[in-house]
Amino acid sequence: MFISDLHLCASRPHITDAFLKFLSTEAKAAKALYILGDLFEYWAGDDDIEDAFNKQIIEGFKALALSGVSIYLMHGNRDFLITQDFCKAAHIQLINDPSLINLHGTTAILSHGDALCTDDVNYQQFRTQVRNKDWQAQFLSQPLQVRKDQIEAIRLRSEQEKSSKSATIMDVNADAVNHLLRTHHYPKLLIHGHTHRPDEHQLIVDGKASTRWVLGDWYEQGSYLICDASGCRSIQL
Ligand code: LP5
Ligand code: MN
After folding, report:
1. DSSP class per residue in 195-222
2. pLDDT tens-digit map of 56-106
3. Which of 11, 18, 121, 221 has the most beta carbons within 10 angstroms of its beta carbon?
4. Cis omega before residue 98 (within 30°)?
5. pTM of the complete model
6. Closest Cα to atom 30, ligand 1: which residue?
7. How many domains is the chain built from?
8. In terms of residue numbers, what domain contains 195?
9. How open is the CA angle 149-154-159, to the nearest 5 degrees?
10. How far apart are CA 234 and CA 214, in angstroms?
11. What is the CATH number of the domain that holds 154?
C-alpha cells in the first residue's frame, strides 16, 4: 500500500482518527506500507517525538509494525527533518527519494514528487537551501519552539507565494519525469505524491511504456494506492 501527503497535525482531528483507524484495519492486510512524504503538516526535529500528538502516531505505527507489516517512510518537503529517533520509535525504515522497488516482479520508482516540479524555480532554490546538511545542523541547533516559529513564518510565505503561482508551475515537469525514468532504466511504474492531483498517467519515454500514479492527499478524506499481483488501484476510505 502507498500513501502520501497526510499532513497530520493536531488541528485536523478527523484525519488523525481516520489515519489511526486505517493503521489498525486496512493497513494490516498489506505486506508493506510505503509513506511517500508529508506524513506530517511539518516536522521541526526528532526532539518533538515526546509531543502527545506525535506519540499517538508513533504508537499507531508501532502496533502495525508489530503485527507484521513492514513500514517505509520517504521524506516530503514538509517532514525532511525526520531522522532515526522518530523512525526507531515508530518501527519505520527511512528510504531515499527516489527509491526503486520490486513490486510483484515489476520495477517501480518511488518519489515524493517535489523534486520533479522544476518549473517552480523559487521553490527549488528554497529546497536546495533547506536540504543542505550544514544549514540543517544550524537550524536544528536552535530551541524547538524557535524552530516552530520560523517554520510558521515559512508556511505563511509559502501560502502567499503559491497563490500567485499557476497550477502548471506547481505540477511536475514532463522533462523531469522523463529524465527520472530514463536514468533508472525505464521502470514500468512511477509512484509519487506532493501535487495533490491523484491520477493515473500513461507515458511513453524513448519508446518505453510507464505508468505514473499520483497519490491523493488526506486533507478532506483518506485514500491509498494498493498494488498486488493483478496491478494497482486507488482506494478511497
Ligand atoms: O507544501 P506545499 O505543497 O503547501 O508547498 C510546497 C512548497 N512550500 C514548501 C514550504 C512548506 O509548505 C512549509 C515549510 C515546511 C517546513 C520544513 C521544515 C524545515 C524548514 C525550516 C525553514 C525555516 O515546501 C511551495 C511550492 C509547492 O510545494 C508546490 O510545489 O510552490 O514552495 C513555496 O511556496 C516556497 C517559496 O516559493 C519560496 C519560499 C522562500 C522562503 C525564503 C526564506 C528562507 C530563509 C529561511 C530561514 C528561516
Ligand atoms: Mn509535498
Report:
1. S---EEEEEEETTEEEEEEEPPP-SSS-
2. 999 999 999 999 999 999 999 999 999 999 999 999 999 999 999 999 999
3. 18
4. yes
5. 0.97
6. 170
7. 1
8. 2-236
9. 125
10. 10
11. 3.60.21.10
